[in-house]
Structure formats: structure tokens, C-alpha cells
Amino acid sequence: MQELNIALVTIGALTLLLSLVAGLMRNKVYVVSEPMAAVILGMVIGPFGVDLLALAGWGDPFTILEQSARLTVGLAVMAAALRLPRRYFRANVRPMAVVLLPGMIVMWLVSGILVYLFLNVPLWTALLIGAIVTPTDPVLAGTIVTGSVAEQDIPASIRNFLSGEAGANDGLAYPIVFLPLLVLQHSSERAITEWLFSTLLWEVGAAVVIGATVGTVAGRIERKSREHDFLEETSLLSVTVAFTFTVLGGVKLLGSDGILAAFVAGLLFNRFADARDEADEQKVQETVLRLFTFPIFVFFGMAIPISEWLALGWAGVALAASILLLRRLPMMLLFHRYIRPINDSRDALFAGWFGPIGIAALFYATVAHRILGIELVWSVATLVIASSVLVHGVTATPFTKLYGQVIDRDHPQAADDQSSAFAEG
């Protein structure tokens, strides 16, 4: 019980403090982001700090991290779906298809090859690590595309693009992660068969169908409830959160990809629900996500394998830096002419840099550790995650402000005109 109280007071105090000074953190204090502060707190109170708390005292650390990450990512992808304009994916089929299909494959292969070259590990192990760090994290991305600084300096088209990509590619990373995982677990022939029929057809295909069906039904019911005054303000505040948990839990019980289903369900719910409620739904989802975000980053700080990081030596540092620089930026520069929200190389550089690696990668890393138990996969993945939290956290506000200043200087009206036209679409 004492450990629970310590967790409540430390995490609660951090959440309270950061919530009270969120504007200051994003506008003035560039060196420490909110997720970074949570990770630092976890390191301080964890086994490598003053040793006040340890996840092992509550149960299996990997199980705690996996389930906490799953809930947090589920809330994050739902928040991303509610943040998007209606019919966003229908209006942007080609740019989303480019970044979610060849774009993700390129990021996966680049990351996997870098792991293979720097660490000299077996190819499929390297590809597994590369797949884990491929998805853009919706939790960290949400801290970049929301708030007054983002609304002032980032065009709505870019914000919507990053939100849509981060929400979709967390679920779509599932087959990319499970292909090398199954190959490492079984023979190649059995792995391919299971990947095609189980992973792709059921765990991904069924997730899309179930999510779309549940989201459509829930959205229509919400609209009818609003029309007949069945929905009170207090019940509205709980609808999307309960909806997220229901989809995550129900689809997982069916053996499918709950994260992808949650995002698809959020898109369809947003499409059919009463438009008057969208702002409230988004605010509630963002608020609840904030309450989940701080604990999972604190847990991550408590569990980081510092000794394993040190064992990687300079190769680990070089690998993390190379992945942050080469995983996404070259892909965005290569494909940006096919991505309508990205108008030029300047937009591509900004969108290419801000594809952070975070809780989604943590979730897949814990899944891989549970199934395979390869410690190297865990240590490398967490090193890259921590590096992204640090580097993207430090650069988020200054790079965003610089990007906004460049847009205003070169095209004073372009950003506003593009944002308005894109939001209407």
C-alpha cells in the first residue's frame, strides 16, 4: 500500500504541476518536454535512482508496461481520429496510402538495415527491431500538433496529416512487427502462412471491419440520442472514453488488432456522430489521454535497462542517432511530391523530422519480449525510444516556431489559405 501511495503522490504531483504550467512548458521552456519530465521522474524514483518504486514489486514489469502502453496508445489513436476533419481519409486516399504503405515499408527496411549494420545481429532480429521502431507515436505526435504553438505555427493540413498518419500506422505496424517475429518463432514456411492468414486477414482485416462497424453504429446512436435529448452533458463526457475501452477490450478478446480497430472506430464515430459534440468529445479524449500519458512515461523511466544500454557502447549511440536521422526524413523527401499536404521540401523536412518513436514502439517491444524473450530487442528498442523522447522533446517547440516563421516570411497568406481549404475538405 505504501508503494501505491508513493506512486499516487509522485505521478499525481507531476501531472498537476505540468498541467498547471503546460503553456509555459510549450512556449518558453524548450529543454524539457512533458514526456521527458515524466521519464526523468521515473528514473529518479526507480531502481536506478533513489529506489522508491519498482515495477517488479507490482508484478511482471513487462506485463505492466504492455497493458499500460496498449491502453495509452488506444486512447491516443482515438484522440487522433477525433482530431481529424470528417471524411479526412476519403479526401486524402493517395497521400495516406503513400505514407502508410511504401512509406512504412521504407522506414522499416531502413531501420532494420541500420540495426543489422551497427550491431551485427541476425537479419530477422534486426528487421524485428526495425519494425518495432517504425510507427510514428500518436502520444508524442499529439504533444507536437496540439496546443497554441502548434495551432499558430503549423498549418492545419500538416497537423492533420501527422495526426492521421500517427493514428493509422500504429495499428498497421502490427503485420510488419509480426512478420519477423513469426519467422524467428517458427519455420519460414509456417511463419509466412500464419502471417498471411492469421495476421493479415484476421488480425488486421477483421480489425478494420469490426472497428468500422462499431464506430458507425455508435456514431449513429450518439446522433439519435442527441436529437431526442437522451444524451446529457455528463454522459457525453464518458462516451468516447468508454467507447475506446470497449473496442480495445472486445476486439482483443476476438484475437484481432485492438489498436487499429480503435482508430478505425474513432474515424467512423467522428463521421456519423453529431457535429455539435465533436469539440467536447475531442477535449475529453485529450484530457483522459493526458492522465494516461504521464504514468506510462514514468513507468518507462523506471524500467529502462541502463546497464544493457551501456553494454551496447558507442554502437548503440550511433544506431539511435542514425535511426532518428535516416528512418523517416529520406522517406518523406522521396515521397513528398505524392503527399498533397506536403507542398515542398521545407514541409517535408518538418513532417519528416517530427515522426517521433514512443509508446507504440514500447508496446510492440513488450509484445516481442513476451513472445521471444530476446533481451537485445528490448534494450535496443528502449534506447531508440528514449532517444526520440529526448531529441524530439527538446526540438519540438523551437523547430515549430522556426517553421512557422519561415512560412510567414516566405508565404504570409499561404499557411492560412491552405489550412482553411484543407480543413473544409
TrEMBL record:
It is found in: Membrane. Its main location: membrane. GO terms for biological process: proton export across plasma membrane; regulation of membrane potential; sodium ion export across plasma membrane. Residues 17-401 form the Cation/H+ exchanger transmembrane domain. It is a multi-pass membrane protein. The chain crosses the membrane at residues 6-25, 37-58, 64-84, 96-119, 200-221, 241-268, 288-306, 312-329, 350-372, 378-399. Pfam families: Na_H_Exchanger. GO terms for molecular function: sodium:proton antiporter activity. The keyword Membrane applies. Signal peptide: none annotated. The keyword Membrane applies. Keywords: Membrane, Transmembrane, Transmembrane helix. GO terms for cellular component: plasma membrane. InterPro entries: Cation/H_exchanger_TM (IPR006153), Na+/H+_antiporter_fungi (IPR004712). This is Sodium/hydrogen exchanger. It comes from Natrialba asiatica (strain ATCC 700177 / DSM 12278 / JCM 9576 / FERM P-10747 / NBRC 102637 / 172P1). The lineage of its organism: Archaea, Methanobacteriati, Methanobacteriota, Stenosarchaea group, Halobacteria.
